Amino acid sequence: MAALTDAKDDREQGGEVVTDLVEYLIVAAPDVASLAPVAEALSGLVRAGTIHLLDVVVVVRDGDGAVDVLEVESLESMAALREVEGELGGLLSEHDLELAAFAVQPGSAGMVLVTEDRWAGPLSLAARHAGGLIIAGERIPAARVEAALADRPGDGEGDD
Questions:
Q1: How many structural domains are present in the chain?
Q2: Residue 15 has what pLDDT?
């Protein structure tokens, strides 16, 4: 039996995606050019094996709310992602992109990503060995996390 920390075994046998580790993210920025450092960071995460990038599209909303969907290959600011290995694209439907566009404020741009969280491979493998799967996850809004951290006992000044 493989060690729990050796999650690569399952993927290397066919290169398939570990489906319980797939998530989507939307990274917003003032404009497409502002997404260049995000593309560089994303490329670094892929090269490090932290994530596997499955799909990425840029959504731009003009000041009136009209939406343009742009492929990464057509944008100079996304050049860092052109060297990402593997099959990329085809997972985000038109409907997915319409929904994602609602998260992007008028007058700004967003990068819509579908990733496999390879850092969580050992957790997924352990769950599968236990007869389970990772079945859900959600980003918690920053304001809620900040409020919860501020309310934690022992974090305030003068607490003993």
A1: 1
A2: 65
